Every structure is written in structure tokens, then in C-alpha cells.
Structure prediction request, 718 residues.
Amino acid sequence: MGRLSRILSESYVLVKMFPRSKSLLFWIIGFPLIFYGLTVAIWGSPTPPTINVGVYSADNPAACNATVNMTKVLVDAMKESGLFKVHMYKSEGEVTGRVKHARLDAGLIVPENFTCAMLKGSAPEIVVVAVRSSWANYSATVLESFVSSFGDNVRRMIVENSTKYIMNYTNKTIAQQAVRWLRFIAEPVRVKANVTVPPLLATAGGVRAFYALGMIGVEALFIGLSVGVSSIVERKSEGSLRMILASPMSGADLLAADTLSALLGFGISGVTIFLVSLAMGARYDLSPGILAVTVALLLLGALSMIGLGLLLAPLARSSEAVTVIVNSIAFPAMFIGGIMIPKDFLPGWAASFAEVFPHSRLLEASRLVLIYGYTPAQAIRYAVPAIIATIVIYVVGALVVMRLLEKSQEY
Amino acid sequence: MAVLEVEDLWKIYPDGTQAVRGVSFSGDMGVLMLMGPNGSGKTTTLEMTAGALRPTRGTVRVCGHDMWGGPREPPRRCVGYSPQKPPLRSELTALENLIWIGMIRGMSLVEAKRRARSLLEELGLADAARKRPRHLSGGMRRRLAIAAAFMGDPRILIMDEPTSGLDPGARRELWHMIRRLAEDRLVVASTHIASDAEEAADRVLIFHKGRIAAQGSPEELIRSHAPEASIVVKLEEPLPGPPSELGGARLSRSEGAVLRYFSEEPDRDLPAIVEGLIRSGARVRSVELTRPGLAEVYLRVTGAMLG
Prediction:
């Protein structure tokens, strides 16, 4: 009983302090909810982003007495697709200028003979304007594909119209062969998109669940690191270290007490985020087995951060140093560790980091089981290296802090 | 075997500073007071005795357990320690602080709550149970710190300057309380206020430069180190060649019209001094008798060693 009480002592402090400490309330409840709320508000729906396109058209259908304006047909199709927000401009310079200054994602310059050339069967040249950046390249590629598809459709329409005349040809066999060939030329390969996406991630509920787990991961980063790094230095500065050293509480008891209280704080934060995310429409697989595995993986993730904090505890000589150490690790990890940003969106080096960073891997494993529909066994198999790394980091961190406690008894 | 036995205790820091040099003492009951100037080794000795700071060499035995050579828990169960800066958590109330410390000492939540309530009652803090430390007066905070050290019902209570920062009235009240606590246990405390030690201590250890320069009961120390009272006589005008001995008193200093005599029996010698000076033709303006106290012992022991 004595040992259990000692281990529970810090959790008692947390439970009593929690409703009163504004700082605890903010970091455990306020900060994650604000962050999560904003993330969901900005990126919470899986709709593709709209591309701002500026169009300058020099097209003159009257030159060939055309009854149809192909530029108008193209622009209407762009608007209907929902992919583009189209702005018309009166000069080519205006479009290129706006693209250069990033006021437009891409520009489209339609030549004077556009309609006439299309109707007469000679290919007009249409220009897509974009600057060199990843987003602009994406915009230009989407625009090029769209215009190209538009061209394909026009080609198919012309072929279908032509077939009516060819079929009137007396030799039916040759006529049918000619139609087949024309259709083949119009559409040599039929592409059927059959993209498989995890059922939950394709929905707003899935995206919200992804970010909720991300926010829980962020809390594990900050709470775990803070508790680990500050385990000795905070007690020194508040004056309780000497009292603890003079008490029956051993170093192992102290570590267990800190770890338990950190996991409790993390648990409070995690449950709050989870419940709020449910209220905001996040969708999870809530079967008990999957929830149990997810909770275990998330707790292990927090434990890995506590262990890392313990490892770094000797570097913290003051409370200010604790803040610097925690922030300089937690903030970058939040972005490059696949925690708030999906691993697939990260550059190669960051994705590799997310693959080996134990906390990231454990969080990813929890997403596998809770969002992507993997079985618990598959998720655990994926997490095994991170589980082993967590145990090693925590044990080494604990030994480092025990040594630090020993040293605290020397001075 | 005494409940506390400290033998040949040394603390040498890595930079070579010898904070404590071969200190030995023991105690069983009552108040054992460590006195000495700042940096004389009192706090270091208390921390090593309490189990918070490892000595370079020497032994500390409490309740029959070796503090630094055996299992960690048994000796520390026997000692309650109140550091100079009370380790109270500002977000917890007085009652919760005591419960937290009780749990650190291994008490169950229920047990700690019961003990904390009874201590708050006993130390006159019942009304402060729900207040946070910053809302308590200095004296109440000190009493709370003592209650904290008392949570595990230790046989030995070690307190580093428990009255530091308090006004004389609050100090007296606190020492009175500490004496009460020491009726059935050993209290080891430190102070640099001689009058406090004289009032509260059963035994005094005077520290100087990491060693015990003198020890004994306040009366023994006064008898052995400052047995003479000081009699200061102020004359109307300087007396050339004042008598060097009058009755049993001897002249210690003569500065113009001020003469200072030392006497082991001032009640007997004072009239003889006045009479003798008048006989020598002096006109006495005033006479001031100062009986010896621990302050004189303290100054004499530490001052003599400084010289």
C-alpha cells in the first residue's frame, strides 16, 4: 500500500490542481480544442481545393460565321466542373501579370482562331500560364488535363457526327471498319478510374477523425516531453526535491508517479478531444477491441515521449530550459512527424522520419486500426518496432533520471 | 543506543569546499539546536542527517538504521524533514498539501486525510485547511511546513531554520509549539538567533567553519564559555589609572570615561565596583549590568575562532 500511495501521489496533485490551474486547463483542454476546432474548420472536409484561373480570350467565331463559341463552351465546362473559379480578363498581359504575382493559380490564353480552327479540324494552340511552384504546377496540370479532356470530347463528338455520313456508304463492311477506326483514333485507350480510398478517410467524418488522432498525438508530444524533461529541475526550483529525497520515496517510485500522472493528464486531454471530435462529426470504428488497441497504442506513444523527455532531463538546468527543449522538439515533430500532416503529403526525408520516430509510428498504427480499417493484429505488427523502441527509450531515460537523482543527493 | 547517532560526518564538494568536517553528535529526546553563522555547515549537516544529501564520509544512524549504508526506506520512515524553503504546492490547499506529503511518505489517501486533519487541528490551522499557502500568514505557512514534516509521525523531526522570516512574537509561539512536539520525540533544528536557542533548546551545537565549536545545554555553554557578566560604568569625566580589580571583578577595558568590568558574581561585585570608584575620586553617571547569554557564547566561540 505504501508504494502504491507514493506512486499515486502526483496523480492526486494533478486531479486536485486540474480544475484550479489555468495553465493546466489551457494546455490539457483549451489548446487542443482550439487547435482541433481550427484544423477542422480549415481542412475538415475532403473537398478538393478550387483553382483560381484567369482566362483571356481573343477567340473570334464570327471570322468563320460559326454559330457556336467554343471558348464559351470551354469556360462553362470549367465552371460546371467545380474545380475552377474562372475570371475573365481583357488582355493577355493582365492574366500573366496576375499569375506572376500569385493573384491567380493559373492562366489560360485562348487564341483568335480557337473556335474556327476546332470546327474546321485544325488543332488550335491554347496556352496555360503558371509560375514554377508546387501548387502552381498542380494547378497547371489540372488545367492542362481539363483542356485536353475537353479536346477529346470535341473529337468524339465530331467522329460521332461523321459516322452518320460514312454509314451511308454502299459498302457496309468498309464503312463499319472506317467507323471503328475513327472511334479508335478519337479514343485509343479507355481509361477507367477506380481509385480505392479508405472508406472513412474519403468522408468529412474520416478527415475529422484523422485530425482528432493528430491532436491527441500533439498532446502526447507536449505532455510527455514536459513531464520527462522537468522531472528533476522543476522539483529543484520549487524546493520539494530535498524533501522527497529525505522521504521513503525511491527514484523508481518518483518516476512511476510522474509517468502515471503524465498518462492521466494525457488521458484527460485525449478523452476530451475524442468526445469533442465525435460531436464535430468525426467517425471511428468504435468496436471495443479496436478501441482497446487504439488506447494502448496511444498510451505507448505518450510513454515514448515521456522516455525521450527523461533522456533529455540532464540538459534542463532551469524552467526556461525545459520550455526551450520541449518546444524545439515538439513543434518540428508535430509537422514533420506525420502527426498533424498526413505522411503522404510530407517530403521524402520527413516521411522517413515519421516512419522511424516511435511516437509517429504508434500514432500511425492507431490510425490504421481506427480509421483505415486494418485489423488490430495488422496494426500491432506495424507498431512492433516502435513498441520495442519505446521500451528501450523509457528504460534508458529512467536510468538517466535515476543517475540524476543520485547526483542530486551529492550536491 | 540513541535514536540519532551522527559520527564523524564530512561533506567535501567536488570543488574541494569542506562544508562539514568531522561532525559527531547524538540525541534521543527534546530539542537539539544547531547554531552558527551562515555557511558554518548547519544546513548541510541537517540535510545529511535527514537523508537528503549524501555525506562524503561518516555515518548517520536513525532508529537503529544506517541512513546511507542500508535499505533506503526504514531510516527515512523514522525522520521528518522540513527544509528552509517549505516545499508547499501553491495550487493545493493546506489540507491537500499535507495529504500529498502523507502519500509521498506512503500513507493511504484515507489515512493521510485523517492525519492531516488532526495535525491542522493540533497546530491551530483548522480554519486554514481550505486555504492555499499564499493566503496564509508567514507564521501559519511555517506551522504548515512543520505539520508537513510531521505527517509520517516520525520519531525524529529535522527542521532547517523553522522560524526564519518571522517576527519575535510569531517566533516565540512557534518555538513553544516545537517544544511541545519534542516532548515525546527528538527535534533537531537550526537557528542563528541566540535567544531562540536559549529559550527552546535542550542542547545546543555551535557550528563554525564546518565543525562543532562548542556543545552542551545553554546553561553549560554559558558557564563554560561566558561565565562572566559585564558591568559597564560611565563616569562624568575620565579617571586616570582606574582600579584594575574591585571585589572579584577585573577591569577589561577603559575608554575615556567608560569602564568595563567582568565578574563571575555580579550581584556581589557591583556595589564593590561603585564604592571603589567613588573612593578613587570618580563621579559615577550610570552603571549597566549585562548577564551572560548564549549570544555572548556564540560570539565568543565563533569570534575567537575567527581571530
Notes: Chain A has two domains: 10-44+201-408, 51-186. The interface with chain B takes residues 1-3, 5-6, 8-9, 12-13, 16-17, 20-21, 238-240, 242-250, 409-411 of chain A (CB under 8 Å).
